[in-house]
Amino acid sequence: MPHINLQSDLYGITSVLDFRPESAAPLCELTQMLLRGESSLTEAERELIASHVSSLNECVFCSSAHTAATCLLPGGNETGIQPMQTSLDSLHINDKMKSLLRIAAKVQQSGRNVTQEDVELAKMNGATDREIHDTVLIAALFCMYNRYVDGLATSTPADADFYQTLGKRITTRGYMMPKDGYHATDYKNQ
Q1: Is there a contact between 154 and 2 (Cβ–Cβ < 8 Å)?
Q2: Considering its fold, how many domains does the chain have in total?
Q3: Quick check: is 95 in a domain?
Q4: Angle between helices 129-151 and 116-124 (to 10 degrees)
Q5: Which 8-state DSSP code applies to residue 180?
Q6: Mean pLDDT of 84-105
C-alpha cells in the first residue's frame, strides 16, 4: 500500500508523476530527451541502461517496465535481458555496451566509484564522451526514479502482461506526460 494517497488505478512511476504534475513535467522532458532524443546509442541500448540500473536497485516496477521496453525496440530482444537480471556476462551485447553498463553499475553505487580506468576502457571499446556522459546521467536519473517509486511504496503489479503493455506504451508514446494526465486506460492493450 502506498505511503501517500496516490490514485489507486495508477502504478509505479505513473502514480507519483500524476500526484504532482508540476514536478513531473521537467522529469518527463529530461527522460524523453535522454531515452528517445538524438543519440549514437540506440533507444534499446539506452533502455538497457535504465533496466540494468533499476535491476541493481531491485526496483521491480522500473526493471520490469524498462526490460519490456528494451525487448520491444529494434535490437533489444537480442540482448537476452530479463527482469531483475544483474549479470552482464549473460547479456548478448557488445563490449562497448558492457563497458557502459559497468559504468552505470558504479554510478548506481556512488558516482565517485567511476574511475578514469572505467572511462578509458569504455573509450577503448568505442564509446564517445557523449555516450559516457549520457550513460552516467541515465544511471543517476534511474537511481532517483527507483528511489521515488519504492520510497513511496507505489503499487507494483505482478502480471508480466502488464509490463508488456506498459513497454508498448513507452516505446510508442515515449515519456512525455499526457496533456490530460495519466489514466488507467494507459495500461490497456493498444
Answers
A1: yes
A2: 1
A3: yes
A4: 120
A5: T
A6: 90
